[in-house]
Structures are given as structure tokens and as C-alpha cells.
Amino acid sequence: MPAKTRSALDAFGYASLLVAELNGRCTWHSALARSLMSVYFSGAHFERGWLPPEILLWLHREALRRRAGAPPRDLSVLAQPGGMLPQRAGASAARKRLCLTLHSVDPDTLGEGQWLIVLREADAAALMDALMRHYGLSLSEAELVFAWLQGEAGTELVSLMTSSPELVQGGMAALWRKLGVADAEQACALVRRQLTEGLL
Predict the structure, then answer these.
(1) Are the CB atoms for 200 and 97 separated by under 8 Å?
(2) pLDDT tens, residue by residue, 150-192
(3) Which domain holds residue 146?
(4) Which of 22, 95, 129, 152 is deepest in the core (most CB within 10 A)?
């Protein structure tokens, strides 16, 4: 990547990765991108200069979609266990997600088969708003789904709904119907799939 382009991306605070589509090799990244990747992804793929497998899978799928003329779809992920996101550093720290957008680049300038991935952090409030609009959930139901995605303990989940066990069970049944699932595991799988596909 030309020095002028690198300087511009860094100066404007963009979290960017330049990657090879063929094998997911990161040929360049901004300082902010490195910081965000360490927060949201466990394992040592990125430290060794490679995309984590879930991002590489999305890159391959998204590149094929773009070549077929399909509209762009971002990837949205929550921090993984083992990442450096502080889980108890306040609600705002624990309720972030990372959104990735794929951009084509000039092959004559940066090489054939290269893509630019731009990362941005989004507050989970946006995700909960999307859940409420898409499925007709109440705020407490959307918070509950987000808590499942974060892997919070059962007692914390119950407190998000109500202090009455009877109402909790009724509320859970209503939530399953709205989502079209049978349990929390299916709810998480549904939301993660829709995040990956850019539907939320």
C-alpha cells in the first residue's frame, strides 16, 4: 500500500486491514485495526498475520457475492471469550460489537486479489433496536437476547426480565414465539446467523 494511502487511513482514524483473498494473509493493517482485532478475537491468527477463520469465510463469501452483483453485506461480531474486552468494565464496554465492511481496491495499485476491510465498533443499543424492530421484541426481551449472546449467568438473565419466576416462564414462551425458536441456544444461533448475513 502506498505510504500516502497508509498515512491518510491512519490520520483519519480508520481501522483498516489489507488482505489477500486467496489465503487471508494480512499484508497491512492500521494501528486501530490491530487494537480492535485483539479485543474481539481470541487465538493467535491475527498475531501471526492471518485473518481469523470466521472473517476469512465471510471474505470469500462476500467476494463471490460482489462478483455476482449482489448488494454488500457487512459482518457483525461480538467479542469472543479470551479476547481483551473488559467484561465488567461497565455496560458500555460489555455491549460493543465489531462491524466489518469489505471494499474492493485498485489491483494495479495494491495488487491482484487484495481487499480492504474497514472495521468500526458499534454499541449494542443499535443491535437491540434492530431486534425490537425486526421481531417486535420489548426492550427487556432484546436485552435478554443480547445477554444470551454475551454468555451472561442465569441469575443476571432473570433479573433482566422480572423478579417473578412465573412471569419469567410466561415471558420466555412469548419470546420463543416471536423469534420462532424453541430455546436460548436456537435464539443465539438465529441472531448470530442474521448478524453474519448482514440482516440485522
Answers:
(1) no
(2) 765 555 555 555 444 544 556 778 888 899 999 888 888 888 8
(3) 126-196
(4) 95
